[in-house]
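Re: that backbone. Tokens:
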């Protein structure tokens, strides 16, 4: 068979492209879906488990392209936010004010006027988009200072990141029905039926899924949660909850676990939960 010059050039180009493809694994495999981590803590009490450079590396290794950043105290959040504006522009940082200085504040913040001063002082920095994560159980949410925090958030168009049981969640909305709440852990063990009832009742409620019990059974999405994710894909967010050092050490497996069950959903629903909901809620 005679090969003419034009055919030779085309054949050579094809061989070259095939060789480059075989030599580059990234050309053969689709890039993994980006994830937004809507529950992470970079605590500085007394110092972070990992240096900032290592944390940013973990995000990149796991294709976490955005984070809802909180810390105790707020030094860690500020460090992440500044990094996102300078040395890590590929990581989108959404900073929330955490109403804790030290761990014991978890138990007392709801009755401590100095915490409200902390919130108002941090807010003056001009870049925070929410308050939390904060912890409330039952009637501990029913205090004047908690109501003041909720009203402060509503007046300034801030989100609340609430680690709350069912009763506390309902009290928060009773304080101010206009509150916009990211519900940490989606109640841990609140039944899917009750979660759905809350989604119907509170249109400004989004459910964050770290530590959430019962989503999978033997690696497969449970029927109840699959139905919720497919019916309300715009109402869920993912999170790592790096509240202790062990969570940082297992960061890759945590995010990998999300990818396993996201792959079992329709692409549109998976993308909404993985990152698009965060884009819609927090992107300014």
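Recovered sequence:
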């Amino acid at each position: 068979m005679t090969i003419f010059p034009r055919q030779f050039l085309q054949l050579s180009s094809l061989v070259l492209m095939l060789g480059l493809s075989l030599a580059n694994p990234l050309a053969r495999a689709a890039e993994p879906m980006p994830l937004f981590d809507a529950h992470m803590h970079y605590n500085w009490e007394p110092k972070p488990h990992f240096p900032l450079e290592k944390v940013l590396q973990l995000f990149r290794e796991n294709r976490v392209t955005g984070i809802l950043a909180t810390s105790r105290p707020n030094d860690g959040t500020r460090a992440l936010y500044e990094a996102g504006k300078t040395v890590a522009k590929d990581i989108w940082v959404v900073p929330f004010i955490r109403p804790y200085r030290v761990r014991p504040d978890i138990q007392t913040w709801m009755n401590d006027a100095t915490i409200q001063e902390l919130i108002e002082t941090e807010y003056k920095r001009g870049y925070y988009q929410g308050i939390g994560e904060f912890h409330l159980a039952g009637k501990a949410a029913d205090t004047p200072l908690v109501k003041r925090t909720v009203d402060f958030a509503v007046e300034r168009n801030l989100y609340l990141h609430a680690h709350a049981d069912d009763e506390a969640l309902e009290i928060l909305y009773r304080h101010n029905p206009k509150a916009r709440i990211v519900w940490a852990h989606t109640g841990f063990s609140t039944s899917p039926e009750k979660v759905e009832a809350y989604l119907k009742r509170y249109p400004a409620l989004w459910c964050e899924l770290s530590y959430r019990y019962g989503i999978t059974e033997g690696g497969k999405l449970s029927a109840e949660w699959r139905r919720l994710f497919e019916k309300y894909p715009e109402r869920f967010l993912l999170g790592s909850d790096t509240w202790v050092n062990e969570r940082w050490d297992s960061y890759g497996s945590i995010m990998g676990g999300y990818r396993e069950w996201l792959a079992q959903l329709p692409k549109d629903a998976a993308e909404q939960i993985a990152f698009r909901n965060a884009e819609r809620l927090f992107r300014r």
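The chain has one domain: 32-282. Strands lie at 35-41, 64-70, 92-97, 130-136, 159-164, 181-183, 205-208, 216-217, 220-221, 236-237.
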